[in-house]
Specification:
The chain is an alpha+beta fold. α4 crosses α5. The protein binds zinc ion (ZN) (2 copies).
Length: 382
């Protein structure tokens, strides 16, 4: 043990910190400071927090926001290490919180602590995003449509959900304009009004990847701000023309569609071979039937690659070449579709088949409307 005296108070000390004893050092050292009043501004509608001039999205509880705000306002001395802060909050009124703050730290080898108090005043202001939403602000409209037909209800729901998912993701990343102003359901599809143009474009990109949609954008000049032209962008987002369950004629072949995206694939009904083609090469293809048109028929006999099917209305046996997807041996029911007097044997029923069950009728009636209305519908592209 060294025999030292503190030059400030003169008392003996084991060792000196910054040239003085422990007590004298701690008297001159400020471990932590906080203003008497700390202010925070939150949006009562969405909980966003104002930081300086900017709003930040927030999903935390108010008390957590206040704790965070206190930690920001708290200034810890430069030599403090291993700092531990505990905050005890009480409130008498929804706008005023009192905080007891205890700071523990290591300063130059000395464990020390300090207790502080502050008052937090919470003001509530509608944030930029919420005031824009309530004002009907939008930069872009995504029109959910389908190529050459009306999209069915399920398809529209899936696409609107995908847009919502993308908007939500962008909002969480801090895009303050990533919100949906309104959703309009129209006879020809659904229009989704979106606060941020870049979020709208991202949503269209995702729809292209996931559902094989195509999209085009067209700007409309809506005004000027600070000398710059302001545009609103309309995205025409189109689902592929054919959906699983459709039977199409492409170059004389009848194809049952099983997947539709950037590529379209399915089954060649005459041979039972697989079909796969780039979707934009199917411009001349036409839909000739779908699974709604399937009927039962009796498979009379199978001999090598020749089969006989009893025609369900004339009851005459019809001889066909055996397609690869037919596995029956004869004397059983199979599913067929008759198109322009030609019989096509359909593959066995599959779980994921479209147009079977509840969605089918709805879609069939929408198709009739599409045919009746022709291509003269506003916003409808053939
Ligand atoms: Zn001293
Ligand atoms: Zn808000």
């Amino acid at each position: 043990m060294k025999n030292l005296a503190c030059p400030v108070c003169g008392r003996p000390a084991d060792n000196l910190v910054d040239g003085r004893c422990r007590d004298c050092f701690l008297k001159t050292f400020t471990l932590a400071r906080i203003p008497h009043i700390v202010r925070t501004i939150i949006c009562p509608l969405c909980g966003a927090v104002k930081k300086g001039a900017r709003w930040e999205g927030n999903t935390a509880e108010l008390e957590d926001v206040i704790q965070e705000r206190i930690k920001e306002a708290l200034k810890i001395g430069p030599d403090a290490g291993d700092v531990q802060v505990s905050i005890d909050l009480t409130n008498s009124d929804p706008s005023i919180y009192h905080a007891g703050i205890k700071v523990d730290a290591n300063v130059k080898g000395i464990r020390t602590n300090v207790a502080l108090k502050t008052e937090i005043r919470v003001s509530r202001e509608t944030c930029d995003t919420c005031s824009r939403i309530s004002g009907g602000y939008y930069e872009a409209v995504v029109q959910v449509r389908a190529e050459g037909r009306f999209p069915d209800e399920e398809e529209q729901v899936q696409l609107v959900e995908l847009i919502e998912e993308m908007i939500e993701r962008q909002y969480r990343k801090g895009y303050r304009l990533a919100f949906i102003t309104k959703v309009d359901e129209l006879p020809e599809g659904t229009d989704v009004y979106i606060g941020s143009n870049s979020s709208a474009r991202q949503a269209c990109k995702l729809a292209a990847e996931r559902f094989g949609c195509s999209y085009s954008e067209s700007p409309t000049l809506v005004g000027k701000k600070d000398g710059k032209d302001i545009y609103r962008i309309t995205y025409s987002l189109r689902l592929p023309r054919f959906v699983p369950g459709d039977i199409i004629n492409t170059g004389g072949d009848a194809v049952l569609i099983r997947h539709s995206g950037k590529r379209t694939s399915g089954l060649l009904l005459r041979s039972g071979l697989e079909f796969s083609e780039n979707t934009n090469r199917l411009k001349d293809a036409v839909k000739i039937a779908d699974m709604e048109d399937a009927v039962d028929a009796v498979l009379v006999s199978v001999e090598d690659d020749i089969v006989q099917v009893m025609h369900p209305t004339t009851f005459r046996p019809v001889t066909l070449k055996k397609p690869a997807h037919l596995s029956g041996r004869g004397s059983e029911d199979i599913r067929i579709v008759i198109i322009s007097d030609e019989i096509f044997i359909l593959p066995p029923y599959q779980e994921n088949e479209r147009n079977e069950g509840t969605g089918g009728t709805e879609r069939a009636s929408r198709n009739c409307q599409a045919e009746a209305a022709g291509t003269g519908m506003p916003g409808y592209e053939a």
